[in-house]
Structure formats: structure tokens, C-alpha cells
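User: Protein folding is very new to me. Would you mind checking the protein record under this note? It all follows right here:
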Amino acid sequence: MRLPETSAVLAVRRGVREWVAARGGRMPVVVGLSGGADSLALVAAAVVEAGDVTAVVVDHRLQDGSGEVAARAAEQALGLGCVEAQVLPVEVGRDGGIEAAARVARYAALESARAGRPVLLGHTLDDQAETVLLGLARGSGGRSIHGMSAWNPPWGRPLLGVRRAETVRMCADLGIEPWADPHNLDPAYTRVRVRTEVLPLLEDVLGGGVAQALARTADQLRADGEVLDVLTADLLRAASAGDGGAGDSDRPALSIEILATAAPALRRRTIRAWLAEQGVSGLLNAHLQAIDDLVSNWRGQGGVAVAGGGRDHRLVVAREHGTLTVRVQPRNDAT
């Protein structure tokens, strides 16, 4: 299919072309296709700019008629020049809420179909702005407002510099009708209210340019975060004190002496990374501060219980013999 050279088409093509060039040139790709404007525009541009394109439509089966919507999207993908279009029905659980569960099922289905190829996703600059704003509101630290990366293998996002309005215009320019997901207008979802109420209000109050500014902030923070990740890895290696002791020899420990000399922000980041390696999940800021106090404000206090244990045991971070260790304790033991 020959694409018209409208401003919207050229903007979307440019995003895909630059993404492909940054990865070394044309390659076969998978595109996650919902049937909406963003993913349809991405499919059309990828056929021209990337190489052989396989469209994968994940049918979450959460709405009546979802099978027909998926089949229509697959047909549109073939009409746009895809070498293949697959529809993958999935079962969506309930863990973490319907949105999170659907995301888990969707990514698992795309992973199963990619056969070693990159998977391109149709997230736009507007999606990036929403993600940053939600992360900022949750106050979960710098990483939560890094936004989405253009390349987080195997997931590629070539349209993070493209506005949603341009993908809609591109579909109109191509004469294809995208599917309008009713969930995208349902105020029961926080992201929908951010999209339809919060961001428009911010644009009005601040005189425009808010979405671009949020996306630009994400880019800057992500670059800073990459540097901090390197420094964190260096400190983690330097502070590694070997095994946590004879009673729990499979769990490495960290040297208090080395941690104590590091900048507080870098130390806490290193502790968080170390705990993630030990299987500690759901670490709250209060937990992290209490663990950091074991290093920087030691007063003889006991260990800090953290999530990540099992039904019969729990994980406790403690200061022992000049090290931080993670201990496994029966749940009926005192801290």
C-alpha cells in the first residue's frame, strides 16, 4: 500500500524510521495491534519503514463482540501490507485490578508470538505524558516518572515523539476506520480521567505544551537514571561482603563500612537493588528508610521485616557483624 505524503503520515513514518535506524536498520518486527488509531498507524508505517511486519491482535475477551473487533483489526493489518496477522485470545485474571491483569495477559501473548523479533507498541507522546503524570502523583520515586523507554528489549515504542492526534489524522488520510475502545472513555479508569480532565486542564492553565514538557522530563530523568544505575551497580559490587553467614549462606550481605561512606541517595538506591536481587517485593519507602537507618543511624535497633517470604517464613533485613543481611525467619519468631 502506497502511503500519501500528508503531514501526519510523514510524522508517524519519521518516528518509525528513526527508531529502526537506531536499532541498526530494517528488520522483521511484530506489532501489537489493538485496532485503535495508534496501533493501526504504527502498522502502516512499519510496513514501509521496518520490513516484514506481523500484526498480533490480543483478544482480551472482556467486552461483547471482542472477537469481531480483533478479526477486523487483523483484516485491516493484512490490507496495510502485513505478511501475517494473528489473533490471540487470552484469559485475563483479576490480580492487581483488571487493567494490570489485562496488561500482563497481553504482554505474555505478544512474547509468545514474537519468535525472537522486536515487538513494536503504539504508545504515543500523549501516553508518555499520562504515564509521567501518574507516576508523579503516586510519589514513588524518580524511576516512576522515567516514563516509557523507546527500546526496552523486546519492546519498542517508535511513536513516543508523535502526538495521538497525528495517528488519528493518519488513519483518516489512509481511509481506514480505527476501533474506538469504550474503555478509553470510561471515567472509572484513572488514566482516562487524567487524559480527558487533568491534562486538558493543565494545558489550559499553563498555556499549552504540557504534554511535550512531561515527555521531555521523562527523557531527561531516564538519562540521569541510566548514569545512576551504573553508579549503583559499582557500589553494589564494592559493598558485596559475600555470604550472609553460616545460618543463611545462600544470601549475600553488604558491607556497612562501604555503604556508610556513600551518598545517602546512592546508598538507598543500592540497598533497593540488592533487596530486589534477594526476592524482596513491594518495598515501601518507610521500609527503605528503616533499613537505611541500620547503616547510617545505628542505635542497636532490631531488623526490618520486608515482603517476599512465604506462608511459614518471612524475610528480615538485619545488621550483623558489620554487614546488612537478609534472614529467613519462621513467622512465629520475634524480630
